[in-house]
Design brief:
The complex is a heterodimer of chains A (445) and B (354). Chain A is globular. Chain A is 44% helix and 14% strand. Chain A has 16 helices and 14 strands. In chain A, helix 10 links the parallel strand 8 and strand 9. By secondary structure, chain A is of the alpha/beta class. Chain B is globular and about 70 Å long. Chain B has a two-stranded antiparallel sheet. In chain B, strands 2-3 form a two-stranded antiparallel ribbon. In chain B, 71% of the residues lie in helices and 2% in strands. The two termini of chain B are 15 Å apart. The mean pLDDT of chain B is 87. The longest helix of chain B has 28 residues. The chains are: A alpha/beta (445), B mainly alpha (354). Chains A and B meet through helix 1, helix 2, strand 2, helix 3 and helix 4 of A and helix 3, strand 4, helix 12, helix 13 and helix 14 of B.
Chain lengths: 445, 354
């Protein structure tokens, strides 16, 4: 009897699977632009993944409420990656063909970016990795489908070094100083290392590498090393719970927080909230924007999206750092579609290939940003065939115990150091893949 | 009715000892393999290949390898992820550093490297037994994790520790499309499953099982524990290493050490426990259960068109999946393979049970 019911259940499950596989590709081709949304709302990185996802989805809702992209409505679907590469790949495969084809993927994970970089060219879907991903993918002549818009880890590393150089009274004063990099032991945390090593050769500081294993809750040993060597500065390259754990350990070891500098993924509210006043004085990079609760776009979203009860997350979090980053990421994707429409036909649904052109020829000047409501949130970005990053600016923000205070001074990454490194690394990648650099003719397409 | 062996007379030892003594079984399996080779590539959509079938096949292979060690020889190992990593990174280094290295040769040699490492870490098994061995093999996992994170030479000096391969081909056949990749993996899996089945029916397999059931008694009847245990580690690590290389080369294309972390070891161990220890078929059932079921559960809300919060869906998947594991282990502690064989026994008598 038991076996019979089991067999029945198995048969039902099998039938269900078949039904699922049968219906999956059968979506009608509608006049809708499909934005797949890879998110992580669960797991060790959820505290940071959730606000980003909320901002991303809210902006898509906002565009729809405003009438879509020149009349083309946006349709989106979320998929949970839990920050795991294999799940991310599964999500990518699941979403890439739905609703007539995905517009652009933004995985918000450097590990997933590495895996998708291999797949995107074959499927002709662009990847936006705004502020993360492969640093060498700024070279659009090799990485045709990757767009690390607004910044990479190498620009971040360079700006941090510039800032402490300035603080010390000149980059030449860095000689003999000790800098420790406390990093997430994954492609994400390792990415800035070559840049920091290159700069240490240039300026003569000592670089100490202190890896922290996933998920970064246990950092006692790392901070014991910090305590022993007493570095002049600590750079924090963490994500998720690792950031607040690092700050707590810094408090416990008595390392001065104002000597700690986080990358732009270690400088959001969830990272410092639990530590509160104890984290006072901790600095982090602000990738263009900080928390922007008073910007026009945030007010618009509160009114148009949250005002109608359509908001994705809690209302209080609208305008926070990671929310804004998700918002900007979605905005750049949408602007890529808009730019593509200018060339391939207004009010039409764009394919991934056409959006790629749009992203490569993105020209967001101040006037456009003002019109979009992003005045004061970010600086103009313009990309080209050779430069897929667009702009490499950042500011320094400081936690005052209750909120992030963004400094006034803008830093721009020193391209004379970064460019050669990007080119060498991209060439190495191209050689490994036996793939030639793109020709100028290819840039026209 | 259909599943009767009336009239199937075994007139020789050979026919009595074949893999599938019942004709219906034989034809069914042959038809299944033929369908997998011919029908599936024609019918399946891309998503099915890339997200379900390829991971399922590769992890089945790894589970098969682990099952030889744990299920047949009784040596519990938690180093599987590490051995997969050795296979993947050895294959990567051979493929990238030696010009003109064929992909298949690199993958198989990756398995050979994993064998060497596996035997090395298998040596403690001569002194340590049971759960203590599981803890000892954890060392293999941690050592491999450490090596691939820290020794830059092993990961091609890449900044992020992430490596990638491209342009797989086999004797002029470019393995590019999802269907090609699927067939490539399927070829490996069918071949290795056949080897495994024959190994466990041969004297080596019988030695393993004797060691598993009672090692003192096995030693008394003349089985050398050193030889039996180390061969089990060797063969198992080879299978696992090849699976690791396939996971990197074919499934991910670009990977980092985290792809083979301790979670992978546990996942594989759970696969064989749920699928059935000491059963070739069980490795496949277990892999299907662990790989396919969560994806199916994830898709369920969309299937019925119920828009459900992503976080909630992810939590629900975990909960239902956990409940199902408990349910199956309660219903049949010996795994899904045991359920399968009970089902077959009953079918042989149906519709006249006695």
């Amino acid at each position: 009897m038991k076996l019979k019911s089991l067999a029945l259940a198995a048969a039902l499950a099998a039938a269900g699977t078949c039904a699922m596989l049968g219906t999956a590709p059968a979506f009608a081709q509608q006049k809708e632009q499909f934005f797949p949304v890879l998110v992580y709302r669960t797991g060790a990185y959820a505290p940071n993944g959730v606000p980003f996802a909320n901002g991303y989805v809210d902006y898509l809702k906002y565009v729809n409420a405003k009438g879509g992209i020149n009349g083309v409505k946006i349709v989106y679907e979320e998929c949970e990656t839990a920050y795991a590469t294999d799940k991310g790949v599964e999500c990518y495969e699941r979403l890439k063909g739905k609703y007539g084809g995905a517009t652009v993927f933004q995985p918000l994970s450097t590990g997933i970016t590495f895996a998708l970089t291999e797949k995107a060219p074959g499927d002709k879907i662009p990847l936006i990795t705004s502020g993360y991903g492969r640093a060498d993918s700024a070279d659009g002549m090799v990485f045709k489908w990757n767009f690390p818009l607004l910044g990479t880890y190498w620009t971040a590393a360079d700006i941090l070094v510039q800032h402490i150089g300035k603080k010390e009274g000149g980059l030449d004063k860095l000689k003999g100083k000790k800098i420790a990099l406390v990093y997430h032991d994954s492609p994400y945390g390792k990415e800035p290392i070559p840049m920091l090593q290159e700069l240490s050769k240039l300026y003569g500081y000592d670089l100490q590498l202190l890896p922290v294993t996933h998920p970064g809750v246990e950092q006692k040993a790392t901070w014991l090393q910090v305590r022993q060597t007493r570095p002049d500065y600590v750079f924090l390259w963490g994500w998720g719970v690792m950031n607040s754990a690092a700050l707590k350990e810094a408090v416990a070891t008595g390392y001065p927080r104002d000597k700690m500098y986080g990358v732009w993924w270690s400088g959001a509210e969830p990272d410092v909230k639990d530590v509160g006043m104890a984290a006072k004085g901790y600095h982090a990079l602000a990738m263009q924007h900080g928390p922007e609760p008073n910007s026009k776009i945030v007010k618009d979203i509160l009114q148009v999206v949250h005002g109608k009860g359509q908001g994705t997350g809690p209302k209080e979090e609208v305008g926070q750092v990671l929310y804004m980053r998700g918002l900007i990421a979605a905005m750049m994707g949408v602007e890529g579609v808009k730019r593509a429409q200018e060339r391939f036909g207004k009010g039409k649904v764009m394919t991934g290939e056409e959006v790629r052109w749009g992203l490569e020829n993105l020209a967001l000047d101040q006037k456009k940003l003002d019109a979009l409501g992003f005045a004061g949130v970010m600086r103009p970005v313009s990309t080209s065939c050779a430069d897929h990053m667009g702009a490499g600016y950042a500011r320094i923000e400081t936690w005052d115990g209750a909120k992030w205070e963004v400094g006034n001074e803008w830093y721009e990454a020193d391209q004379s150091v970064i460019k050669p490194l990007v080119k060498t690394s991209a060439d190495k990648y191209a050689a490994e893949k036996k793939q030639a650099r793109r020709t100028p003719e290819d840039c026209q397409s | 009715m259909l599943y009767r062996e009336n009239g199937q007379f075994k007139t020789s030892y050979r026919s009595d000892q074949q893999i599938f003594p019942i004709a219906q079984d034989r034809y069914l399996v042959l038809a299944l393999i033929a369908f997998a080779f011919i029908g599936v590539p024609l019918l399946a959509p891309e998503y099915l290949f890339r997200a379900i079938l390829i991971p399922f096949l590769i992890l089945s292979l790894a589970a098969l390898g682990l099952n030889l060690l744990v299920g047949y020889c009784g040596q519990i190992s938690l180093g599987t992820g590490g051995f997969m990593a050795v296979g993947a990174y050895a294959a990567y280094n051979l493929f990238v550093r030696i010009d003109g290295m064929p992909a298949v040769a690199a993958i198989v040699l990756g398995g050979v490297f994993a064998t060497v490492v596996g035997v090395l870490f298998g040596i403690p098994s001569l002194r340590i037994k049971g759960l203590y061995l599981a803890v000892a093999t954890l060392a293999a996992q941690f050592f491999c994790d450490w090596a691939f994170l820290r020794i830059k030479w092993l990961t091609g000096n890449s900044a992020s520790g992430s490596v990638s391969v491209a342009d797989l081909s086999l004797l002029g056949w470019k393995i590019d499309s999802p269907a090609d990749k699927y067939l490539f993996c399927l070829g490996f899996v069918v071949l290795f499953a056949l080897v495994a089945k024959n190994l466990v029916r041969s004297h080596i397999g019988r030695e393993w099982m004797a060691i598993r059931d009672m090692d003192v008694a096995a030693a008394v009847i003349g089985i050398r524990p050193v030889y039996a245990k180390l061969t089990a580690f060797a063969v198992s690590s080879f299978f696992v290493g090849v699976a690791g290389a396939l996971w990197g080369f074919v499934h991910l294309g670009s990977w980092e050490p985290a792809a083979f972390n301790i979670d992978r070891s546990f996942q594989l161990l759970f696969m064989i426990i749920i699928g059935g220890l000491g059963s070739i078929m069980g490795s496949f059932f277990g892999a299907a259960f662990i790989v396919v079921l969560p994806i199916f559960l994830d898709n369920l809300p969309y299937l019925f068109g119920i828009p459900i919060d992503t976080a909630l869906a992810a939590h629900m998947t975990f909960m239902i999946f956990g409940t199902l594991i408990v349910f199956f282990l309660v219903v049949e502690p010996h795994g899904l393979a045991r359920l399968w064989s009970i089902g077959k026994e009953k079918l042989r008598l149906w519709p006249f049970p006695h």
